[in-house]
């Protein structure tokens, strides 16, 4: 409540914020769907919440709509706290993923549903419904059965049904997901147009990064119940904040690197000039280079990297080539094709090299020492290298356990591992894969491997005794 | 809210409870308690004493098993055929299939009765079985068809593609896919066959054949219920109750195991 | 491949055995009812059987009375069954499955035994047998057939419809009457089919529940057949068939409006 009061005060200063989400978490049983979300949305903005399936984006939208209530934190719309308000008293309307048009009502009655509940006079109602239909380009469809409409038409009716109530915020839950590509492109343009004409706030949920880039004023990238980055499409694309965002938005080469000093980074065995600073000296970093930012040409002195073309695919406008430079596979897009097997040079401009601080350099777990050769973490007991007796903490105090990414062994047969998990996220780093494996203990284990795994593979996880570092 | 359900259930089970309670007393009339006794159970199990009741029981089961088996075969084959028909024929066949369900027992019974007398067939065991097959098969078809609809349409072709003959494809691919539908169809057929009264009455003839239903009906018309029917009903009810509980627990356990595995 | 193999390779032809069976045991018998209804003992065409029905107030009255009882039973089943189905559809699925099981379980006890037990129940509480007992017995026998299809439609109903209604400003009362209830119509219609039709055509149950005081139309038909008045019995059956056809036409119309399923099977 305090936060909201605070927020109302802010409202007077800045009359633009319409939705304020403060420290909101949502738990389903012991699963965390949303983890301390803070987000404020300005009036009239087109905000897209973008993320892979299961990242919590739909849950966030449903909390705003009121179909679910937050476990923690609060949500304000137009300065009013609405965390516990039932959906029918909120100034928002939703366009559902599968439209949810009432099959027992025709187009007119579907659109008039909300107005009838408000007991609006018949004439006004008819006028408004007609206007809404016109807005979505469905004039003369009033008395059609909703089941007789195509997917795109149903979508338009669903939008009309929501906007006819003149909500302050329109929530859209992957509204285009069920349409085919061509239709989707058309509808994207129309939605953008509609947003301009209506002037209301749109909160749009999607997993389609291209859709997000096309439509939004602001993109909120989410993963695993957390907001990863908030920014304009250009910001998000050009300055991804971490490897996840870089990988999720557009295509990228993501490589391990070392920041030698300010404005000098080392990767692929070469040193490169860049524009980033403030990482310290010899700091491990992730380096992101977009495929279209690399110049490819026959080998010459200008080449920063030399490599051999491994594959070349025509993608409609450009060619996409995989170039093997020393040990690293680098993806390059260019209008010119280079033959497979030909030797090429690559060059990248300093400001096209994006440096991101590594979130972690090895796995860190909290554990307990069982005896001189056994520790317990991730809900399992592991054998470890002998711990000097003077270093064993008394009465089972927690210790820090470190395991390097490349020392975690994954097994095909989940039964073979000491514990099991599921592959959640795969990042290709040029010469190896960086996997995020969610163990059954609900803690992430990060793994570097040369083996190819698929999303949601069940794997066994094994760590050899000598690879477990116990830090007291 | 939940109490409403329990009150409703209590009402539903009250008559059954009464039957079970009064199966433990000797009284000839239901509702008259003359002290606890297991005599009715004893005389029920003594087949000689109640030859006709046991006979009726055996007939009922025999008719149900034969009718359910035949309708499961006939209905499953028909379902595969119907599924492969063109839309218009499928609709027509679907309509024919629902006729016995819509008609209600009495119309089915009378129409079959007229058929048998017109053909001059003496009614008896065979006619009852035929009649039961008539009203059981539609339910089998209706249980199997949804399984076929859910089936990936390419499965059959995939089997052929991998070198199976049409017959092998049927046995190794289609039958396993529709088996749950066949099983539930069989159980459904068994149940409605055992419970049937109206159709049986019209097709059983007058050769002295009796099923449980006709036996009870004749009994009731005479003004009373053979006391041994109480323990019999109680036993049938308890057996079914236990079977269902065991089946449910087993599937629950299986599900639990599966969910544990996937977790 | 010989001709026979070719024939069976096409799975369409698998319909054939059942088609032949249905023609012999479903379609021809129904036609026989029509034939018998329009002929006399000697096999001559006549309308006498129908004339007899319309001239005899007794049969006519039984017919109308039976429809009345069937309507009351159906309404009773909806009023008692809908809330049960609604509560069940809101409960956890493992729990509601068990309860549904419990509702269906009494069906395995022979219908006549169940009816006699109802009689015993009325005796036990010293309630008079008669119309009240008849309707109670009918509802008792048929309510599971109402609960199950309604529960099915309610359970399958996409929760986004409810959410959409809330989103558009409906409170829980309005959500129910404007969305949930209309969308559960297919279930109600299947329930009506499953309850109304068998109720009209039952016989024996009514006699047992009313000490032979009340006769329903099913009994009238059966008595005529038993007394070898086959032609008249067939005519009465045909009248009932018309009623059944009319009801099912009405309900299939209702159903095709929202072909979202429901149904008992």
From TrEMBL, chain C:
Pfam families found in the cross-reference section: BPD_transp_1 (PF00528)
Subcellular localization, as worded in the UniProt entry: Cell membrane
InterPro entries (alphabetical): MetI-like, MetI-like_sf
PROSITE patterns per the UniProt record, alphabetical: ABC_TM1 (PS50928)
Keywords: Cell membrane, Membrane, Transmembrane, Transmembrane helix, Transport
Transmembrane intervals: 16-38, 63-88, 100-121, 133-151, 188-209, 229-250
Membrane association type: Multi-pass membrane protein
Domain of life of the organism encoding this protein: Bacteria
Keyword Protein transport attributed: no
Domain ABC transmembrane type-1 per the UniProt entry, residue ranges: 63-251
Family: Belongs to the binding-protein-dependent transport system permease family. CysTW subfamily.
Protein name as annotated: ABC transporter permease
UniProt source species: Phocaeicola faecium
């Amino acid at each position: 409540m305090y936060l909201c009061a605070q927020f109302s005060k802010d409202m007077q200063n800045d009359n633009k914020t319409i939705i304020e989400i403060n420290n909101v978490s949502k738990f389903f049983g012991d699963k965390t769907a949303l983890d301390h979300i803070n987000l404020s949305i300005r009036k009239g903005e087109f905000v897209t919440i973008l993320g892979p399936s299961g990242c919590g984006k739909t849950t966030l939208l449903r909390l705003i709509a009121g179909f679910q209530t937050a476990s923690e934190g609060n949500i304000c719309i137009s300065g009013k706290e609405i965390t516990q308000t039932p959906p029918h008293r909120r100034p928002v309307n939703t366009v559902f993923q599968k439209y949810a048009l009432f099959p027992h009502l025709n187009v007119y009655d579907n659109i008039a549903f909300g107005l009838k509940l408000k007991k609006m006079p018949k004439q006004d109602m008819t006028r408004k419904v007609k206007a809404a239909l016109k807005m979505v380009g469905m004039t003369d469809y009033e008395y059609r059965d909703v089941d007789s409409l195509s997917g795109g038409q149903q979508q338009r009716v669903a939008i009309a049904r929501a906007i006819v109530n003149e909500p302050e915020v329109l929530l859209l839950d992957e509204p285009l997901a069920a349409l085919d590509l061509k239709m989707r492109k058309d509808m994207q343009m129309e939605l953008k147009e509609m947003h301009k004409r209506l002037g209301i706030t749109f909160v749009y949920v999607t997993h389609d990064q291209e859709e997000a880039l096309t439509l939004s004023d602001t993109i909120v990238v989410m993963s695993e119940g957390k907001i990863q980055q908030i920014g304009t499409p250009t910001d998000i694309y050009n300055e991804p904040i971490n490897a996840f965002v870089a990988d999720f938005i557009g295509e990228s080469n993501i490589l391990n690197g070392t920041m030698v000093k300010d404005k000098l980074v080392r990767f692929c065995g070469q040193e490169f000039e860049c524009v980033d600073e403030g990482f310290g000296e010899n700091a491990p970093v992730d380096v992101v280079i977009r495929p279209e930012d690399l110049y490819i040409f026959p080998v010459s002195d200008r080449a920063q990297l030399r490599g051999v073309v491994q594959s070349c695919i025509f993608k409609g406008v450009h060619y996409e080539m995989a170039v093997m430079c020393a040990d690293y596979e680098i993806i390059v897009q260019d209008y010119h094709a280079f033959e497979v097997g030909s030797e090429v040079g690559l060059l990248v401009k300093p400001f096209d090299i994006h440096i991101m601080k590594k979130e972690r350099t090895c796995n860190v777990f909290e554990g307990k020492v069982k005896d001189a050769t056994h520790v317990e973490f991730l809900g399992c007991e592991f054998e470890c290298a002998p711990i000097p007796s003077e270093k064993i903490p008394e009465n089972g105090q927690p210790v820090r356990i470190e395991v390097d990414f490349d020392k975690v062994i994954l097994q095909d047969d989940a039964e073979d591992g000491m514990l099991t998990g599921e592959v959640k996220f795969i990042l290709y780093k040029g010469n190896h894969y960086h996997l995020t494996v969610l163990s059954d203990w609900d803690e992430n284990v990060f793994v570097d491997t040369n083996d190819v795994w698929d999303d949601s593979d069940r794997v066994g996880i094994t760590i050899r005794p000598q690879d477990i570092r116990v830090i007291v | 809210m939940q109490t409403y359900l329990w009150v409703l259930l209590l009402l539903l089970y009250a008559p059954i409870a009464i039957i079970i309670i009064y199966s433990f007393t000797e009284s000839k009339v239901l509702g008259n308690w003359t002290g606890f006794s297991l005599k009715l159970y004893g005389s029920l199990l003594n087949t000689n004493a109640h030859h006709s009741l046991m006979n009726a029981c055996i007939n009922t089961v025999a008719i149900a098993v034969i009718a359910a088996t035949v309708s499961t075969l006939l209905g499953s084959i028909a379902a595969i055929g119907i599924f492969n028909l063109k839309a218009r024929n499928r609709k027509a066949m679907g309509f024919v299939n629902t006729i016995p369900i819509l008609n209600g027992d009495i119309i089915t019974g009378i129409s079959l009765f007229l058929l048998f007398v017109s053909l001059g067939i003496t009614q008896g065991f065979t006619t009852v079985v035929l009649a039961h097959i008539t009203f059981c098969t539609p339910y089998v078809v209706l249980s199997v068809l949804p399984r076929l609809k859910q089936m990936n349409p390419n499965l059959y072709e995939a089997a052929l593609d991998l070198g199976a003959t049409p017959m092998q494809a049927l046995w190794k691919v289609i039958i396993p896919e529709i088996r749950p539908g066949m099983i539930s169809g069989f159980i459904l057929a068994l149940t409605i066959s055992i419970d049937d009264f109206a159709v049986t009455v019209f097709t059983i003839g007058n050769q002295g054949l009796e099923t449980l239903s006709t036996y009870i009906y004749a009994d009731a018309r005479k003004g009373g219920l053979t006391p041994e029917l109480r323990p019999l009903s109680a036993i049938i009810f308890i057996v079914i109750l236990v079977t269902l509980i065991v089946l449910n627990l087993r599937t629950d356990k299986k599900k639990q195991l599966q969910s544990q595995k996937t977790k | 491949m010989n001709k026979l193999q070719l024939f069976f390779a096409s799975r369409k032809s698998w319909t054939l055995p059942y088609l032949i069976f249905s023609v012999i045991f479903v379609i021809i018998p129904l036609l026989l009812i029509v034939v018998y209804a329009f002929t006399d003992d000697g096999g001559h065409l006549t309308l006498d059987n129908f004339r007899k029905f319309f001239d005899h107030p007794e049969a006519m009255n039984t017919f109308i009375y039976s429809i009345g009882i069937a309507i009351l039973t159906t309404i009773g089943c909806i009023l008692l069954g809908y809330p049960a189905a609604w509560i069940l559809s809101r409960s956890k699925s493992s729990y509601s499955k068990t309860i549904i099981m419990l509702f269906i379980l009494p069906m395995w006890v022979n219908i006549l035994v169940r009816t006699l037990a109802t009689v015993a129940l009325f005796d036990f509480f010293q309630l008079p047998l008669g119309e009240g007992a008849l309707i109670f017995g009918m509802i008792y026998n048929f309510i599971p057939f109402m609960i199950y299809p309604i529960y099915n439609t309610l359970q399958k109903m996409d929760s986004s419809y409810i959410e959409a209604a809330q989103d558009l400003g409906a409170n829980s009362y309005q959500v129910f009457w404007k969305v949930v209830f209309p969308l559960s119509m297919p279930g109600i219609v299947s329930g009506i089919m499953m309850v109304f039709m068998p109720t009209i055509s039952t016989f024996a149950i009514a006699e047992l529940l009313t000490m032979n005081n009340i006769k329903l139309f099913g009994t009238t038909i059966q008595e005529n057949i038993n007394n070898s008045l086959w032609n008249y019995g067939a005519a009465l059956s045909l009248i009932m068939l018309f009623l059944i056809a009319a009801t099912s036409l009405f309900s299939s119309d209702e159903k095709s409006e929202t072909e979202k399923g429901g149904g008992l099977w």
